[in-house]
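Field: COMPLEX_INPUT
Field: COMPONENT_COUNT = two
Field: RESIDUE_TOTAL = 998
Field: MODE = joint
Values follow.
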Amino acid sequence: MSDLTKLSALELSSELTKGSVSAVEVTKAHLDRIDSLDKSVQSFLHVDKTGAIKQAEEVDKNRKENKKVSALAGVPLALKDVLTQQGVPTTCGSKILEGWIPPYDSTVVKKLKSAGIVILGKTNMDEFAMGSSTENSAYFPTKNPWDLTKIPGGSSGGSSAAVSAFFAPLAIGTDTGGSIRQPAAVTGIVGAKPSYGGVSRFGLVAFASSLDQAGPFARTVLDCAMLHEVMAGHDPLDSTSINQPVPDVVSAAKLQDVKGMKIGIIKELGGEGWQTGVLNRFNESVELLKSMGAQVKEISIPHSLYALATYYLIAPSEASSNLARFDGMRYGLRVDDGNFSAEEVMNKTREKGFGKEVKRRIMIGTYALSSGYYHAYYAQAQKVRALIAQDLTNAFKEVDVLISPTSPTTAWGLGERVNNPMAMYLADLATLPPSLAGIPAMSVPIGLADEDKLPVGLQIVAPFMNDDRMYRVGGAIEASLKTKWNGLLIDQAPALGGAK
Amino acid sequence: MSTYDEAIKKYDPVLGLETHVELSTNSKMFCGCSTEFGAEPNTQTCPTCLGLPGSLPVANAIGIESTIRIGLALNCSIAAYSRFARKNYFYPDMPKDFQTSQYDEPLCSNGYLDVLVDTEDGTKPFRVEIERVHLEEDTGKLTHAGGTTGRIHGADYSLVDYNRAGIPLVEIVTKPVPDTGEYAPLVAKAYVTELRDLLRGLNVSDVRMEEGSLRCDVNLSLTPKGSKTWGTRTETKNVNSLRSVERAIKSEIERQSLELDKGNIIKQETRHFQEDTGTTRSGRSKEVAEEYRYFPEPDLVPIAPDKAWIEKLKKDLPEQPSIRRTRLAKEWNFTDLEMRDVATLGGVDLIADTIAQGTSPASARKWWAGELSGHASKAGVELIDLKITPTDIARIDALVNDGKLTDKLARQVIEAVLNSEGNPDEVIKKRNLSVVSDDSALIPAIEEAIAANPDAAAKIREGKVQVVGVIVGAVMKTTGGSADAAKVRELVLKTLGQ
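Field: COMPLEX_OUTPUT
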């Protein structure tokens, strides 16, 4: 097996099951590629070689002893550094958590481990998942494997870069306002945000509790669905976890048929200000869906125009409270000259430990929750949020899924929007409405923009706990484009530094 | 005229009480950790109650049920939809730097508790209206080392124990209570006493003030007589016994009246009650309204209790303490005053349990309210905290009735049991305290007593048996009370030919 890193999770799974390759070999192949190429991509904050090989050995042992193992046992994965893994550093891309080793596994990690999925390490991210480019990481920016001068999206940019650079066939990200879908779109891979409550948040270091949701990244829709199935399910440790069967996303991804499906184009997401190449690819996808027998029509989500304003009140408000615990008292960074009072330790630790964007959002949130402003900002935003959700509920009375471009533009240049937070926030325009409504959405690659030859993503949005519907549409589009391209879009990515 | 009487003549006090009750659930409010009191610091913790990154709360159903039962017992209406809220503030005893509490959507609201107060004109009823009963989590416990104040400012360092963090805490807030006049301290004390008994009857909390499972903050303001606007209130914390509730209010009425007399204004502030002096001292100023940035806790789902369930909880409530006391007073043949004394001592259940083991009501009351209450007040604890059980008392009482112990010996046995020397039988054996009824041991003492009281002896010999008490008394005196009085009488009469 010459290039194990080019195989999908499904292909690896089949080789591992056949016994033509061992989990240790698969793991080592990926670790080797990370070793030689991640210095230019910088997708990992921490590579856990010892732990990964140990896990792989365990899987091989179980297979040898004919113990029952899951389909993805032995397949490597990259984990966003916002989910706790016992004994492995978790920084959330922040200096304030530098050196913290969690004493417990997040539920997602527990599920990955029990499925025998090998966790290679922790991936880079915007500090506390706040950002759309991974440039807000307190450690270093991650590069887009398609063009190392471009951003890989964010906040789960380390995970999207790792999958698109073939460092791992699977990755976990988290999505609060688009942090899985937008990175997936700009790196030409598949990423899904499950229904809110579909995947346990226990062990996911909170940014905005009512929006945060962990989800899968992969290079194919079916791989993505398989990982989704492993991650999802009710967790009694998360009160907001949904106690319902996991939608059958794997079968839906395999269906490759959209005949008779009703698909709505979100009217408000597109048009002026959107990159032409993005809109061109989107329009082609619409035609493609029609040609496959779907009924496509335009549908209005009027309150989606207020999604950005709503999101940037609710998310920072929750963040201002969620991030209060980082005070230097119990773990992580502590700034103390030995004579500081408790209050001084807290102030100075937070001053030094948090980056600019995190401070900005803590300040916005603190302000929005203050008495006298609460009703005008936070409470008002919650009302608008309900209206957006209502719009989407109404839309689903007419159509099965909704679609839009995932992001208004392709990947932009590193540093281009660092000093313009508003431009950065606009990257999430299309991904915010489903987040606010708590409904599932995913991004699948639909081609390269004419102008810059960079990947474009299609966002597919489904009703609450009907995650399978988006996989059905995504799987069908992927199958059709695969024939056209004679492979996946990601296969067209330029080789990293010429190395294979 | 005393300062207090002067104050009451010029001002009307307005009371308010905020009571925190630690629920006695097995596990904490939002995680599975034990709530056992007195464990090694920080051993009853987990990622959730330590507020570790990524941890999440799950509400304890028993905690919610207990809160609703408290609300029902206090005649509150139970919310059809209630939410937890985050109360945000930075302090090292708060693992998350916010407290999960309730804000504008409490579980219970608008209730009342009726209390009785003894006045010169007889017993007077007062209704204390309840504003709200809500559920929250306790904070960790800080210990400040070094420094002189025992407070965080000026301490060399501080230690924090998170065992307490996350223990369910119910806050019961009264509405302002006007029109109590000179009885304000007594009304407050009666309210807390009644509340304590009600909570004990519900079996939802240990309600031990000295262990902090029942904590009381007292709000007080004074209004000049005839004025319609209430004065500025102070909030006094650290009021840790029933007696302190009364003393704190009395002292605060005196202090505020002296300030107002001088033309000073009352500062809105937190004050701390000091046990040793019985006065309050200034704490944190509350001039700047505190900014807690409350918002609904997004990590927890709203509580929408089922109506039928509420009805069932209501039906299954135990008898209200006041009704129960009236019933028991009748059964036990106690006067109202006797019963109220017993209730104030927290002795109703102890006496009931003692009676259940065969002791007569009068004896049970004598032991608990007479003998043991003295021990409790000397030790500065409550009756229920004494290291003696109703079973012990019932046994001691039985031994006295059987003539195996005299009252005096019984007191010695009680002292020994309180000193943890064992149960009554063990103590009697160890200390060799049994009543002397052996003839040979008693004869010398009897002979000595007859010799010392020749007149009495002569009268008995003549048949005036009723004089025998003089000789018996003398024998009891020389034997230090350890003699069996009936036996002594029998022997004295026999010796003197009767």
